[in-house]
Amino acid sequence: MAVVKVRRKYEMKNIMIAGAGVLGSQIAYQTALSGFNVSVYNHHIDTAERRIKALKSDYERDLHLTDKEFQQGLDNIKVITDDIATAVKDADLMIEALPESLELKERFYEEVSELAPDKTIFASNSSTFIPSQLAPYTDRPERFLNMHFANQIWKFNVVEIMGTSQTSPEVIEEATKFAREIKMVPIILNKEQHGYILNSLLIPLLASGLSLWAKGVADPAMIDKDWMISTGAPMGPFGILDMVGLRTAAQIERNAYAQTKDESHKEIVDKMEQMIQEGHEGKESGQGFYNYPNPAFMDPDFLKH
Ligand code: NAD
Q1: In this predicted model, what pLDDT tens digit does every residue of 25-65 receive, in sequence order?
Q2: Residue 263: what pLDDT?
Q3: How many angstroms separate the CA atoms of 111 and 84, rounded?
Q4: At what angle do helices 237-244 and 220-231 cross, to 10 degrees?
Q5: Is the pLDDT reported for residue 4 higher than 50?
Q6: Which residues, including other chains, have CB under 8 Å from residue 8's CB and lie 6 or more apart?
Q7: Is 220 within 8 Å of 213 (Cβ atoms)?
Q8: How far is the CA of 230 from the centre of ligand 1 (A)?
Q9: Is 99 close to ligand 1, i.e. is its CB under 6 Å away?
């Protein structure tokens, strides 16, 4: 007897990624590699292209992709544009990975709401804003949720899925299915939580490391060494900060300063801004707290002395 496949109301096919920075470029490429048609919206087209192509060495090293396979992924990125209307035109799902600024995200969600088809699910990759802060900027709170990816998604393949009380269960289900299709492990939160699960654990660690550094208690390598030897972790807070990227980390401290007016956050922001101006933006730029591709903390001798 023939097996009759029950077709879903629709299958996701076209995915828009808004913002092709550290995370957006990774989400765009991983989605394209998994066979979806991807459109990318970024205000600088050339930097978006460069960032996506720069993932080649990571995918070759970690997933052993051949040149041809990497190119097949690139071929599924159908458009990279600075025009929201073009990118969202036929999107089933739009994942927003724009800078961590509420004003910027508000402007974007108001604009994309006017331009997107009714079917489009909106998902934010925001690390610090919960979906009920962003959903009111859209015209579709029942089709809005957060999907929070971890940096280096091809290796650290989790996505935290968090809706509001208004998000439709069907949308959570669609997002979960999509996550699995792009080879992520979905982590579904039952209620809203600032920082999800990962950042509820991680941000206090990074903030404490930065505070120790800004107060002059110890330098980054010494702080990392203590953490790594004592816990057996493969990297310490400053190795992680380089991976996250100093622009995002500085923005989180800037937001903390705006909320608390605590001067210690301002001190950290000033120190990080100076590093960013000097080109120390983290792993992506080849230097941050460490120099890449061979940061000192990965040297086997680092933990011996
Ligand atoms: P990023 O600064 O590396 O990238 C932002 C991108 O948006 C850049 O390509 C920039 O050119 C583009 N952009 C800026 N303003 C724009 C505008 N008005 N219109 C269109 N494009 C614009 O940031 P990121 O680290 O990739 O973070 C993006 C989001 O992902 C944030 O919400 C952050 O909280 C979240 N996130 C980051 C990480 C991380 O490890 N970096 C992890 C999980 C989630």
Answers
A1: 999 999 999 999 999 999 999 999 999 999 999 999 999 99
A2: 93
A3: 8
A4: 110
A5: no
A6: none
A7: yes
A8: 33
A9: yes
